[in-house]
């Protein structure tokens, strides 16, 4: 019997989480379908009521909801999930569990990256775990920690993304693969051409040498994760223009660019730079 059949709403299956399943079923029955777009709305809006859907579709939706995954969002972000078989979804879940991922992790991991649900175990997921083991030295017991830190690893191609990023980071001087795996795995899912290189070039453009810029990111890898327009520029302008600091201060204290978002904007975003100093006392650099 497939692994997740115990989570599906079918007369032939028994739900071990009765309360959660019932709540999910009631919620789904009361909201639009996640499979058929309404003719008068965008493709992200769905109009066919759950009771009118085929049994296998209802089972798939309920399986996602019981795991803690928003089925509507997952199907919107990953349209291939609409036609994926239950068996294929079950095989992905079974494989993740066999690698040490816990049931309680699935909602967050799959909710963040629903594309994982339609991945091929052999062609997509297997190579990622092999990369973690072979290239980063992560033991089987460490897989869960790394994947929970960065679920996007499971949705990334080893040949097109992970290996090129690792090779580039190693050339820069990131030799501690343990730190990359457990502390900064997001760097491995960052595009070399569109993210890593442009951010290094921005630092060089401020007036420092490439060696100095590389030294900064090695001391503070978080610099690679922030937006140039929404984080680097306003913080640098504030440090120099409002606080009277110099480029040398930034070289000596790179944490000034990674201690938080200016003005509270998410993902490196900024609100108003005037709120930066009182909100982030770490920008009170040493005199």
From TrEMBL:
<keyword id="KW-0809">Transit peptide</keyword>
<protein>
    <submittedName>
        <fullName>Uncharacterized protein</fullName>
    </submittedName>
</protein>
<keyword id="KW-0732">Signal</keyword>
<dbReference type="InterPro" id="IPR003690">
    <property type="entry name" value="MTERF"/>
</dbReference>
<dbReference type="Pfam" id="PF02536">
    <property type="entry name" value="mTERF"/>
</dbReference>
<comment type="similarity">
    <text>Belongs to the mTERF family.</text>
</comment>
<keyword id="KW-0804">Transcription</keyword>
<keyword id="KW-0806">Transcription termination</keyword>
<keyword id="KW-0805">Transcription regulation</keyword>
<dbReference type="InterPro" id="IPR038538">
    <property type="entry name" value="MTERF_sf"/>
</dbReference>
<dbReference type="GO" id="GO:0003676">
    <property type="term" value="F:nucleic acid binding"/>
</dbReference>
<feature type="signal peptide">
    <location>
        <begin position="1"/>
        <end position="22"/>
    </location>
</feature>
<dbReference type="GO" id="GO:0006353">
    <property type="term" value="P:DNA-templated transcription termination"/>
</dbReference>
């Amino acid at each position: 019997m497939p692994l997740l059949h115990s989570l599906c709403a079918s007369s032939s299956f028994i739900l071990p989480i009765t309360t959660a399943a019932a709540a999910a079923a009631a919620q789904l029955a009361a909201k639009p379908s996640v499979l058929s777009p309404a003719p008068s709305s965008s493709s992200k809006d769905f109009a066919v009521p759950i009771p009118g859907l085929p049994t296998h579709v209802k089972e798939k939706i309920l399986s996602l909801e019981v795991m803690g995954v928003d089925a509507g969002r997952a199907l919107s972000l990953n349209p291939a999930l609409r036609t994926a078989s239950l068996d294929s979804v079950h095989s992905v879940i079974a494989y993740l569990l066999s690698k040490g991922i816990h049931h309680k992790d699935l909602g967050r991991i799959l909710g963040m990256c629903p594309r994982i649900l339609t991945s091929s175990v052999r062609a997509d997921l297997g190579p990622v775990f092999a990369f973690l083991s072979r290239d980063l030295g992560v033991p089987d017991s460490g897989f869960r920690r790394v994947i929970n830190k960065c679920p996007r690893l499971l949705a990334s191609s080893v040949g097109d993304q992970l290996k090129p990023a690792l090779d580039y980071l190693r050339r820069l001087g990131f030799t501690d693969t343990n730190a990359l795996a457990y502390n900064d795995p997001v760097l491995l899912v960052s595009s070399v051409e569109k993210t890593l290189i442009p951010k290094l070039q921005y630092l060089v453009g401020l007036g420092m040498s490439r060696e100095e810029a590389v030294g900064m990111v090695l001391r503070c890898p978080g610099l690679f994760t922030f937006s140039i327009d929404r984080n680097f520029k306003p913080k640098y302008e504030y440090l120099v223009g409002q606080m009277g600091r110099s480029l040398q201060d930034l070289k000596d204290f790179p944490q000034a660019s990674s201690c938080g978002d200016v003005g509270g904007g998410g993902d490196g975003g900024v609100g108003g730079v005037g709120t930066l100093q009182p909100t982030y006392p770490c920008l009170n650099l040493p005199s």
